[in-house]
Write a structure and sequence with these properties.
single chain, mainly beta, Immunoglobulin-like, 3 domains, 50% strand
Amino acid sequence: MKNILFLILLTTSYCSINAGTLVLEGKYQNENLYVINGQTENGVGFCTYQVSINGRISTDEVNSSSFEIDFTQFNILPGTPVIVKIDHKDDCSPRVINPQVLQPHATFEVLDINIDKNEILNWTTKNEMGPLPYTIEQFRWHKWIKVGEVLGTGKMSKNTYSFKISPHSGENKFRVKQVGFGDVSKKSTSISYVSSVATPTYVISRDSKTISFSDETMYQIYDAYGIITKQGFGKNLDVSNLKKGVYYICYDNIVIDFKKRK
């Protein structure tokens, strides 16, 4: 009877100890995690009693007010998916002070970038530590603007991507960019491409309601305060709902101003 009672007490104690698990998931970015541990409510012992990485028990010393979770003990390579479990007692909770280190960072390296005869932008990368989107940017109207997006694979090995561009007349410049955790970005070098398309012309209707281009083109219209009021791609632009005043038309690779009179 005493043995049965002892077993019940031992089982109850074990369940109490295993009451909490803090789980973090992401990819190893070549940085360790730091934990504020703290003591239990009764002041005996520390909160965390076990840490595991991808199911393997860590050898990190957790019996202190703070400790480091070291990924190198398991020879984990940068970019490897990780699941970190911090088991703690039920009357306290440890706090990870830098969980963002497991979030994707923009780390890609461009092996090759080119534009082929079909006006396809191709680029090859390596060393991606997380699936971040690539923003394709084109230099138009004296600034870099977004013209498309392709999701990155997030793999450390070789990755190949492509995107159909819409060049303006003359010399074009394109590049790709990723924005990682904390809005930290990384950009490729720009690549030039000379297009043989003719520069479009435009006509504003007498009633100031329509702008017609001689060929399809990307366009933006700004008001006198620099606010975009219209943008898109096409041959005809409806401006009937714009108020009277001075505006700036950006099309092809040209910036002009016009006055809406009606």
